[in-house]
Amino acid sequence: MKYGFFDNDRREYVITDPRTPTKWVNYVGCLAFGGIVDHTGGALLCAGDPGLNRITKYIPQMPASEFKGTTLYLRVRDGDEVSVISPFFTPCLDPCDSYECRVGLSYQKITTEIAGIRTEVTIFIPAGEAVELRDIRVTNLRGRPVEIEIVPVVEYSHFDALKQLTNADWVPQTMMSEKLSLKYGRMALLQYPFLRKDDAVNFLSASRPVNSFESDRKAFLGDNEYGTWACPGALAEGGRLSNCEARRGDNIGALAIGMGSVASGDEVRTVTMLGQDRRERIPFVVEKYSDPAEVDAAFGRLADFWQENLSVFQCETPDAEFDAMVNIHNPRQCYMTMNWSRYLSLYQLGIGTRGIGFRDSSQDVMGGMAGAPSEAKELLRKLLSIQKPDGSAMHQFYPATMHADCGDAEEEKEKGKLVYGDDHLWIVSAVCAFLKETGDYGFLDEEISFYEGAIPIDEREGGSVFDHLQRALEWTKRNVGRHGIPLLGYADWNDTVNLPGDAESLFNACLYGVGLRELTDLCRFLGKRDLVARYESDHAEMGARVNGVGWDGEWYVRYFMESGEVLGSSDNAHGAIYTNAQSWAVLAGFAPDERALSALDAVNERLNTRFGIKLSGPGYNAYDPEIGGVTTYPPGAKENGGIFLHSNPWVMIAETMLGRGDRAFEYYSQINPAKRNDDIDLFEVEPYCYPQNILGDEHPQFGLGRNSWLSGTASWTYQAATRFILGVRPAHDGLVIDPCIPSAWDGFSVTRKVRGATYHIRVSNPGRVNSGVVGLAIDGKQLDGTCVPYFTSGEHEIEVTLGEFGAVREPGSTHSSEMAVR
Ligand code: GLC
C-alpha cells in the first residue's frame, strides 16, 4: 500500500505518492504513434519506429527527479507575487498537498494539489490518431482570484534516436522550429529536422490562444543554461517567453497559455496536443481537439475499446489479486506486448538492433488474440512473411520497412553459423491458438511469401499458411545433432546460452514436440489422416530420443555441447538444473508419469523461491566464453539463476497437467505483482504488470524486479491463469472447461466470449478438489466430458461441478497433450 492501491471498479491502479522506487509507467497509443507515459507526466513518444522516428527526448538513465520528455508548469500571479508550480511534481519537486496518478487503460490521469492550485491532467492518444492529448483542468483553491498561465514543455529528440545521443554538433545544427498561426488566435509550434525524408513534422499546440512561446532550451532555462528545469529563468522572470523560432540548438517546445484571472473555486480547462503530421493536416487536428466534446468523445471511444477487449474473459474467484490481474492488468499488458514486442519500454529503448521479434511476438500474440483478433492476425501475417523458404525464420523485423535480420546473432549468420534454433517453431503454436480462438480456418489457405532478403516481395516464393507451419517442423526434423536432438544454433529461447559448434537443445526438442502435437490435432480436426500419422510418429521418435539421452536421473538435462559435455546435469557444479527442460518435457507430452513428477518436484526443491522459480541454478560465477552470455551476469541475475518470470507460467501449466492445482496456484501467486504491493520497496517495479526478471536468492537484492512491461511473462501468465488454472480454453471442436484450481476454492465463475457466443460459466467445487469435472451442463442439458461444442451466437449458461475422481490426476494420462488440447 505504500505508493498506491488497486481501484478495480474503475480498472485503475492509483499511485498516491510520486516518490516511487522507479518511474512507474503506462502505455498510450500504439506503435504507429504512442509510447510510455510515466507517473510524473514524462513521455517517451515515437511514430512507427522508436529508433528512427523518436519524438521526445526521454532518457531513463537520468535521475528520477528530472522530468523526462515532457512536463507542465503553471505560472500563477497572486497579487504582486508570481510563482511557478509543476503539477507533475517533477521537476520543481514542491511538496504536494495531494498527489494521485490513476494508471488507466491507455490513459494516465494525474491530479495534484500544490500551493492551493488543483490540477487534473488526463493524458491519452485518441485511437488511430497521431496526437497525444493532455486534457488539463486547473482549479483555484486559494480563496481569492489568481491569474494562471499553463505552460506545457516538450524536449524533442532528433528523429534518429541514436544520433541524438552520439552527435552533439550535427544534431543541434539540424533542428528547426517554426510558428504556424491558426484560426481563433491559436498556434502550433512546429519542430522538425532540416532534412526529413517525409513531410511530417512534430507539433505542439493548445485549444486556447498562446501568449508567447519558446523553442530554444538555452533561452528557456536562462543564464547560459545555468538556469534549471526546477526554476527556468524564462518563467521566473514572469515576463513573456521569447517567441524564438529556433534555427538550431537543443530544441524544445514551450507554450504559455493564458487562462486569465480565475476566480476562487473556479475550474479552467485547456487541451494541449503533441503530434506528428503533415503540415497541411495540422490545422484540422488542432481544430478538432480544441473542441472539448471531441476530446470527451475520443476518451469515450478508448473506454469502449477496452470494454470490448476485456469483455472476452472476465472472472470472479475467491482471490481478489488474481481477479485484478486476469480481468484488467494482465490482458492490458498482453495487448501492449503484442503491439510493442520488445521495442520500446523504460528498459528496452528501441534503438539499433532490436525490432519486432519472431519468437517474442509469436508468443505475445497468443496472449492478446482473444481481445484483438484482427490485430493478432495482422501480426501473424507479418511474422510468417519473415519465415524463410527452408522453414527457419529471421529473428526479427522492423515494421516500418519489413526488413528482417537476426539481431544479436547477425554476425554468426554471416559466418554461416546456424542462428536461433527455436524461432520458427513458435509460429506453429501461435497460428494454431489463433485458429482455435477464431475458427478462421480459411487463414490456413492464405498465401504468404517467404523471406528472401533482397528479392522484391512479389518475386519471392510463396506458400499457404499451412505450408509455412509444415516447413517449420520439417526444418527442425532435418537439423539435429549427434544425439538426434535439434541443434541449438546461436541460442534457443534462452538467448544467453551460446555454445560453440553443433550443440543440441533439449528445449528445441520439446518445442518441436509441442508443435507436432498442435499440427496433429489440427490435421485430425481437418481430416488429414496421413499427416496425423506422420506427426504422431515424429512426436514418438523425438520423445524417445529425449527420454533416451536427456534424463539425468531426477530431471532432464538442458543442452549437449558439441564436445559431448552436458549442461543442466547433476554433474555440473553450476547450471546443474534448468527449469525449462522440466516444464517443457511435460508440455511436449514427452515425460512419462514418474519422470514428469520427479522433474517438476526437482524444480520445486531446487529452483523455487518465495518470489518465483529461478531459470537455473546454481548460478555460474565466472565468465566462460564456451557457455556464453549467461555467464556475464552475476549469480542470481537475469538468466543466470535469476527468477526469469517468463518461464514460471510454463511450470504452472505443467503442474496443471499433472492435476496439481495447489502448486500451480502457489506458483501463480508468488509472482503475482499485485501481491507485491505491500513489499514494494523491495520489488521496486510497477505492481500492476509483470516484470521480465526478479533477482534470485543468490543475489544480495533478492526479490528486486526489473525490466517491467515488455516480457513474454504477460502472455504466458495470462494463458496459465485463463486456459489452465481456470481451465477455459478454446479447442478446435469446442470450448474446453477443465479447471485445475487450489483446493481451498469452493468455485468461481467466468464469462468467456468466443466465436460469436458468450458463455457464463459457473464452476462449483463442493469436494474441495484441484481438478476433475464430474458434471457439466450447458443451458440445462448435461454433457459428457469437458468440451462444449461451439455456438455461433447468444448467451449460454454452463454449470460445472468438480469432484473426487480427479483429486490428483494420473500424470501424463489425459493431460500430457494439453498444449495441443483435445
Ligand atoms: C528476453 C528475450 C526473449 C528471450 C528471453 C530469454 O526476454 O526477449 O526472446 O527468450 O529473454 O533469454
From TrEMBL:
Protein name: Cellobiose phosphorylase
Pfam families, A to Z: GH94_b-supersand, Glyco_hydro_65C, Glyco_hydro_94
Domain Glycoside hydrolase family 65 C-terminal: start-end pairs: 729-765
Domain Glycosyl hydrolase 94 supersandwich per the UniProt entry, residue ranges: 11-292
Thylakoid listed as a keyword: no
Keyword annotations of the record: Glycosyltransferase, Transferase
InterPro entries xref list: 6-hairpin_glycosidase_sf, 6hp_glycosidase-like_sf, Gal_mutarotase_sf_dom, GH65_N, GH94_catalytic, GH94_Enzymes, Glyco_hydro_65_C, Glyco_hydrolase_94_b-supersand
Domain Glycosyl hydrolase 94 catalytic intervals: 305-727
